Amino acid sequence: MKPSVVAIKQQDIFKFNARAKKIPGAVNMTVGEPNFHTPEHIKQAAIRAIEDDHTHYTVPEGNHKLLVAVANYLHDKYDLNYDPETQIVATTGVTEGVFSAFNAILQDGDEVLIPSPAFTIYGPDADFNGASPVYLDTSKTDFKVTPDVLAEVLRTNPRIKIFLLNFPSNPTGVSYTEDELRALADILKDHDIFVISDEIYSELTYNFKHVSFGNILPEQTILLNGLSKSHAMTGWRFGVVCGPAEVISQINKIHELATTSITSITQYAALEAYTNGYDDPKAMQVQYQERRDALYAGLHGMGFECPTPDGAFYLFAKIPEGYEQDDVKFANDLLEEEHLAILPGSFFGIGGEGHLRFSYAASMDSINKCISKLQSFLVNQKKLANIEG
Questions:
Q1: 40-276 is classed CATH 3.40.640.10
Q2: Does pTM top 0.85 for this prediction?
Q3: Which part of the chain is the Aminotransferase class I/classII large domain (predicted)?
Q4: Which of 33, 67, 107, 145 has the fewest CB atoms in 10 Å of its CB?
Q5: Could you tell me the residue ranges of all domains in the chain?
């Protein structure tokens, strides 16, 4: 067996979610799974593709009409300029996009700089490719990377080949303004590294307009995006990787080896989304913001501290003083006693200890139940502490 594969552990977030699903009636606020359905016009486009027998291989990078539609969409939304002939590859979700990009770029001994807390696939992807993840604790800087810290880390870690930037962030929901991105770019432009910018939540922003890092530092940026969150298409597994032609051609080689191409039916659904689904995310975004505000108010009223999310659909809350501070034990006890599933913050790495990640990609009814169950749990914990004291 390949040692780098044997060393990879099954993702804790999936194991915890599987446990929650076995509990009848449990309120599940763990996985970032939109509770909306894929828009009807997109589903119908996929059905037509099947009926018209568009069920054969496509070229590895994706159907040409689709890539043109992606390029036009990204230009209209974010003023990005990617050549559909040479600078875009359609992947099996952003997850495959990260995997293929890491495979194409990294060599043994390289390092990947990952702001932490972070989504859980980035580190194992680096390990698998013989590289070492370098985790940057952002918990003391409002869960953002600051230019001064970035400059120091790059100075002291000359083997860093990739800076992985995810915004709006999973798990914290924080994002970056254009000025903040430009300040980071001023540091990065003087280093021979790639910026892999995971912007899968770009359509779900609340406090300011999303600006893509691909617009700030195009020569060094590999942009990851897709339709899973914006158009409630998680099961369709559609993502895109965009960037300089010379690196995209190498990523496409890995993508071709791994998948040949993504499914033809998904490509026709994606073509419809990018062509006629320009405004589909807006109604969902409005409801997510309402859910964010309701959950934030409920948590704040119980003494939880968390940054107000700029985007995505997560709240990353610090457990109040006076309660169990071991976030894994807190979450396990909460699941057992109240049948409420919340992910421990430490699952997301350094800086996540003592926090909980709430996904509000759930119904308002589930959010209200979550608040009620959490209140009950805290009351019982306080009573238990008084008895033991």
A1: yes
A2: yes
A3: 27-365
A4: 107
A5: 3-38+280-388, 40-276
